[in-house]
Amino acid sequence: MRAGLGFMAAAAGGSILPTTLQYIETAVRSTSQTGGGTISTSINLGDPASDRTIIIASSFIDTGTFGFDSMDIGGSAMTILSQMQSSVSGRQLISVLSILSLPSSSSGTLNVAMTGKRGYFRCSVYRATGLQALSPVSKFEYATTASNAPRYQSIELDAKKDGFVVGTMAPYRSNAPAVTGVTDDFSAVITGSYRAYQGSTLTAVDNPTFTISTDHGTPTQQERSLAFASFR
Hints:
Blueprint: E1 2-3, E2 6-7, E3 20-29, E4 33-34, E5 37-44, E6 53-63, E7 67-73, E8 76-77, E9 79-88, E10 91-101, E11 107-115, E12 117-118, E13 120-129, E14 138-143, E15 152-159, E16 163-171, E17 178-180, E18 183-191, E19 194-203, E20 207-215, E21 224-231
Antiparallel strand pairs: 1-2, 3-13, 4-12, 5-11, 6-10, 6-13, 7-8, 7-11, 9-10, 14-21, 15-20, 16-19, 16-21, 17-20, 18-19
C-alpha cells in the first residue's frame, strides 16, 4: 500500500516483513571540472523486487564555489533525505542521503547535478526491501562551521526492530575515522586530504538511543559533514 513517501511491506499472512539491506557498490568520480552540470555514471542496483528501495549515501568534495543540486536514476528523481555541507577555508565537504522506490531493473544510470563545479564524489548504492516507509525514523546531521571539530563524536538515532541504519561522512582527513556501531562499507581517500565514508547496519531490537561512535584522530582541527538515518 503506497501513500505519499510511505509504503507497507506485508507477508501473505498480513505480518510486517523485516527489512533487508545490501551494500551494492560505490560510484566513483575522481576528477573536477569548472562549471556546474550533470555527471552520469552506470550503477548496479541489485536484484529487482516489488518492494525494492534504492538508497544512495554520498560524499562530495571540492574547493571554491561548489554545491550539490539533485540526483536521479534513469530520470526518476531521488528524494533527498539529508544534505549537509561544511564550508570552511574554501573547502566544500558535502554529505547526502537520497532514496527512491525502484522495483525494476538490475542496473541504471545515476545522474548527479552539481553547481559551481562538477566535483569529486563517492556515491555508495544500497538495496533495501521490506521498508514500511521511505521517510527515516530519525536522522542525525552535522556540519562544521569552523575548523575546530571534535575528535570524538557520538551519533544517536532512534533505531527500530527489524530496521537498519545508513550513514555517510565527508571529512577533511586522509586517515580513516574509527567508527563503531555500523559496518564500514566504504572508506577511502578521494583526493589529497579529503575522504569519503559510508557505513550501515541492521538493527535487531528497538533502541531509542542507538549510538554510533567516531574517532577522527589528531589533529582535532578538521572539518567534516555527516548524515546518518534509521529506517523501518
